[in-house]
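Summary for the steering committee. One of the milestones for this cycle was to obtain a three-dimensional model of the protein with norvaline bound, which we needed before selecting residues for the alanine scan. The sequence and ligand used are listed below.
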Amino acid sequence: MKPGQGLMRHYLQFKDFRAEEYAHLFDRAAIIKRRFKNYERYQPLADRTLAMIFEKASTRTRVSFEAGMYQMGGSVVHLTTGDSQLGRAEPVEDSARVISRMVDIVMIRTFEQSKIEAFAAHSRVPVINGLTNEYHPCQILADLFTFIENRGMDRRGAIDMNCLKGRVVAWVGDGNNMANTWLQAAEILGFTVHVSTPSGYEVDPVVAGIKNPACYRVFKDPREACDGADLVTTDVWTSMGYEAENEARKAAFADWCVDRDMMARAKGDALFMHCLPAHRGEEVAADVIDGPQSVVWDEAENRMHVQKALMEYLLLGRIG
Ligand code: CP
Ligand code: NVA
């Protein structure tokens, strides 16, 4: 059954959707983006309300969901731990029961994945993961769309999902929520992730939730991980919630800065991505993130277009 027409779907991790559903979402994101760029009104979510729950800070996730929902004709309720009963120990199950009676869709940014799973289990409406300690699926959705725009889109905007097949994505840095989600995407969409992390910060395939160990290869040397890569990507050394480890991480990650030498080992036309916020001089050199191979600003903007396609899919099913 289609979402929005019976069976309710959540988007809690990347592997919740199949490859053909991603093909649909990317098609829709391209159409929705084109309309936005042409100032064409597209308001299929009139009278629908999105609740956004933030237990961690955000710039991109908040702006992209909020602006996206308004552009689609809907409205938004913004909740944080500090200004709701969530911060005063109301059980997550009760919060889910109450909030989901009043809105049509919920986006949550929180700590443990188990918390968003508990919310979804008691929600009457679709729940979207806006980042947990373990996963960041909306970001990888935007990253893949950005890659496709650069390598698999013709002049008319038609998408070729095959452009992802057999590609190499170099992950340089922490074995964190972003790395886990890249692994899930590789398994579903048929590419390989070359992962290089400092010792003690490796990806855990069980936490990542992958079955096929061939979807990634581990490299001790971050430079080797970049050899022949189609895309080099990284993230902050210290994710939200791990701030107490900041000094230890700065020491451990000193050699995991994506610099020009690393980019030179990737393919000549390799792209650079970073989910942002970035720390120039830590995980990435300024001349890489601000250089010609970097697509980070498109990547950030694309959060909004892919999430509009995602909300459309979860609420209205397959359109087009
Ligand atoms: N990339 C990302 O999720 O950014 P924010 O933390 O600003 O939402
Ligand atoms: N890994 C980072 C991503 C921020 C968008 C974090 O969890 O803080």
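Key point for the committee: The chain has a mean pLDDT of 97.
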